[in-house]
Amino acid sequence: MEQTLKIDMLGHQGDGIAHNDSGAVYVPFSLAGETVVTIGEGAKPELLRVEEASPDRIDAFCRHFTTCGSCQLQHFDHDAYLAWKTDILKTTFKLAGITHEIEPIRHYGRANRRRAVFTGVRTQAGILLGFSERATNNIVGVKECPILLPEIEAVMPYVRDISVIFAPRQGSIRVTVLACENGIDLSIEITKEKNQKSDLTAIRKAIAHASMDHFIRLSVDGETVLEKERPIIKAGIANVAPAPDVFVQASKEAEQDMADLVTKHLKSCKRVVDLYSGIGPFALRLAQKSEVIASEFSQSALDALDRAWRDTGGKLKKITVERRDLTRRPFAFQELKYIDGAVFDPPRAGAEIQCEHIAKSRVKKVAAVSCDPKTLARDLNILIKGGFEIKSITPIDQFAYTHHLETVVLLQRKK
Ligand SMILES: C[S@@+](CC[C@H](N)C(=O)[O-])C[C@H]1O[C@@H](n2cnc3c(N)ncnc32)[C@H](O)[C@@H]1O
Description:
Layout: E1 2-10, E2 16-20, E3 23-27, E4 35-39, E5 46-52, H1 78-95, E6 106-107, E7 115-123, E8 126-132, E9 139-141, H2 150-166, E10 173-180, E11 183-190, H3 200-208, E12 217-220, E13 223-227, E14 233-235, E15 238-240, H4 252-266, E16 271-275, H5 283-286, E17 291-296, H6 299-311, E18 319-323, E19 341-344, H7 352-360, E20 365-370, H8 373-385, E21 388-397, E22 406-413
Parallel strand pairs: 6-21, 11-12, 16-17, 16-19, 17-18, 19-20
Antiparallel strand pairs: 1-2, 1-4, 2-3, 4-5, 7-8, 7-10, 8-9, 10-11, 12-13, 14-15, 20-22, 21-22
Helix pairs in contact: 7-8
The chain binds S-adenosylmethionine (SAM).
C-alpha cells in the first residue's frame, strides 16, 4: 500500500515520524517537514520517494546508505544533524528533570572508526562479507565504508581472503577488524554446534596464506592462533594489548576526548574507582595522578589492563584490578570508604544499584560515561538525590550518522 505522509519530526531512533488515522508512522530516511510517499503496511513502512524535500536534505556519501543497516542519517545536513543529536540528550534529560546546560557536541569527522564487525556467509563465488541489511537478516556486501579508518578499508580484500577459509557451508562467521597502533588485528568467530572445535586445517591454511602479511594477529573463536606482534592500543603512557573478544571504544579520538574529560575532572582525587573499566582507557590515564581500583566483568579485559600497567615499569600509581559482575555485586558504600573519585561507563542498562552506593558513600567527584541517555538520566538523578550536582554534560558523537549517542557527565558533591 502506498501512502503520502507529512513528516512531523525526526524521532530519537532516527526515523521521521508522521501521523495517519492509525497513529504514529515511522519512516526511515525522511526528515522533519518533508512530504514523502511510503510503501508497506503498519507503523513502519518503507520510504518510496520524497515529494517535498527538507532544506536539510543532502546527498549521502556512501553508496550502501539505505541498504546497509549501519548508518541512518547520512542524508541530514551536518549542522542540523548535530543539533538533532544534541536535542535527543536535551529532551531526554528534561523529561527526567535535568535542565543543566549542555556543552557543544564533539564530532570526529567521517573516517574514524577503528573497529568493524562484519558478518560473512559462503557464496558460490567465495564469501559475502558485510553488515546486516536494514530490517532483514540479509548481508550487504560492503564494497566501501567511508566511516571506517582508511587503513581498515585498505585491508578488506585480505580480510576476505582469510575469512573465506573459515566460512562454513551453512551458518555464518563474525569477523572483527581492529586498527591498532602497530597494525591490524583480525578475529574470526564461527557459528557452530556446541563443543565443535575450530577446524585445524583451516587455521593452518589461514596462517600460511600470503594475505596474513597484512595482519599482526589472527584469532579464531577467541583463541589467538598467530601473533606476529602484540596489538597495541595506547592509553596515556601505557600500551594495552586487548584480547580478541574484549570491548574497545570504536573511535580513538572519541576515547581520547572522553578520557581527557574524565581525567581532568578527577585529577585532584587520591583514590579512584573505575567501574566497568574494560581494558582501562580511563584507569591507565587516571593512574598518572591517582591510585585506581579498576573493576569489570571480563577477566581478559582486566588481564590486559593489569599487564599494560605492569609494563609501564612503575611509571604509574598503583592499579588494582578486581573482577566483578557489578550489577550483582556493585561496590558497596562501605567499600568506597577511602575512595574520593569514581568513573563509571556501563553498558546500555546503566549502573543503577552502583549509583545508589556511590550516592551513599563519601565519594566527592564522579565522571559518568554512558551510551544511553535514558538510563544515564535515571542514574544521574540517583546521584543528585544523594547530594551531587552536575558540573558539565558533554555529548560525544562516537557513532556518527547513527542515532547512538555517548555522553560524559561530570558531577561533584555539594559542599
Ligand atoms: C561500555 S564498555 C566500557 C569499557 C571501558 N570503560 C572503555 O572505555 O573501554 C562497558 C564494559 O562493561 C563491562 N560489563 C558489562 N556488564 C558488566 C557487569 N554486569 N559487571 C561488570 N562489568 C560489565 C563490559 O565487559 C565492558 O568492558
